Amino acid sequence: MASSHCFAPFVFLLLLVGCSASGRPFYPLPSKLADGDRQPLQTSRPYNIAHRGSNGEIPEETAAAYMRAIEEGADFIETDILSSKDGVLICFHDVTLDKTTDVAEHKEFSNRKRTYEVQGVNTTGFFTVDFTLEELKSLRVKQRYPFRDQQYNGKYTIITFEEFIAIALDAPRVVGIYPEIKNPVLINQHVKWADGKRFEDRFVETLKKYGYKGSYMSKDWLKQPAFIQSFAPTSLIYVSNLTDLPKIFLIDDVTVPTQDTNQSYWEITSDAYLDFIKDYVVGIGPWKDTVVPVVNNYLQTPTDLVSRAHAHDLQVHPYTYRNENSFLHFNFHQDPYAEYDYWINEIGVDGLFTDFTGSLHNYQEWSSSKEGDEKNASNLLHKIASMVSSYGKA
């Protein structure tokens, strides 16, 4: 999808800042050029959710990855929200900086390595909560996986939650955001705000500051769509008292308990729990292998999780879909489009978190066109049949 002219200057500005070595905090305000008539969010097919941006092509959680995802047709851009030491909300997935930044190359930070308990496991590394925003901005982001394109390593910085929102609001069409309240237990332990607020408060305050409000499919929501997601049910319940924006309860592997309530997978996917949590969320976001178990890289019989969730009027947005052969199960014969077809048409999910936004968009466009062509062809045949029938009677 081509970018509009009004988007181009903003893209250039963000890229310029991403390459800057100054480390200066940057808080762009939306230009409001998008307040006119824009193509609305599509709601007729499963949502294309750009997982950490189009990170199959460009390093995750960067301005460039999110802008690429918008260009490629994402309905929502997804991000993970953590905090800096000085309480600024940032877009970053891991609680440590080691895997996707060049922090190890910065000698000035060599004494920052710490060991903290993260979800019951002692974890050692350079934690975001031990760096100010200015220090985080001095780092450069790199590609997580060695088999992906490495040419963008070192070109982009960590961005803030506000910068992320600005990217969505300045898009040439309506693009939703899908932020995650990431590791709230750890953040609330190590980051203290002067006014006594907690991580979740700051998170919702930021959304409100930029006009995000409204229940699912309301007029306000369709104008600026947003889903709030978290693996922590207590956080989701807490923010339910702060905003009516729709929320998604994330579900990990069957062996991983919830990070805040220590509940087992079996409990949180029971009918009783789904009946409870539906008062606070509009859907669940399960790891896809919890929906369809896998043995020796082959799909097994699907569970009934999707049908039970739908019976409780909950959407299902599984994660994560990736194009590479190392992630594709053998059933799909190295074809990511076959995987999309299976999950959309056989399993019946309502949204998909993908690292390759363009692939999912292409699949949905092509499959929609095919359906449209078949419908048009069928209508034409009916018209011809009607004409022939009338001619015969005459």
From TrEMBL:
Q: Name the family the entry cites.
A: Belongs to the glycerophosphoryl diester phosphodiesterase family.
UniProt keyword annotation of Hydrolase present: yes
Database matches in InterPro entries = GP_PDE_dom (IPR030395), PLC-like_Pdiesterase_TIM-brl (IPR017946)
Assigned EC number? 3.1.4.46
Keyword vocabulary terms for this entry: Glycerol metabolism, Glycoprotein, Hydrolase, Signal
Task: Write out the GO biological process terms.
Answer: glycerol metabolic process; lipid metabolic process
**Glycoprotein is among the record's keywords:** yes
Question: What is the scientific name of the source organism?
Answer: Prunus persica (Peach)
A molecular function annotated in GO for this UniProt entry is: glycerophosphodiester phosphodiesterase activity
Which PANTHER family does the UniProt entry name for this protein?
GLYCEROPHOSPHODIESTER PHOSPHODIESTERASE GDPD5-RELATED, GLYCEROPHOSPHORYL DIESTER PHOSPHODIESTERASE
Lineage top rank: taxon: Eukaryota
Q: What is this protein called?
A: glycerophosphodiester phosphodiesterase
User: Which of the seven top EC classes does this enzyme belong to?
Assistant: hydrolase
Catalytic reaction list:
a sn-glycero-3-phosphodiester + H2O = an alcohol + sn-glycerol 3-phosphate + H(+)
- Which Pfam family, any one of them, does this sequence belong to? GDPD
Q: CDD domains from the xrefs?
A: GDPD_ScGlpQ1_like
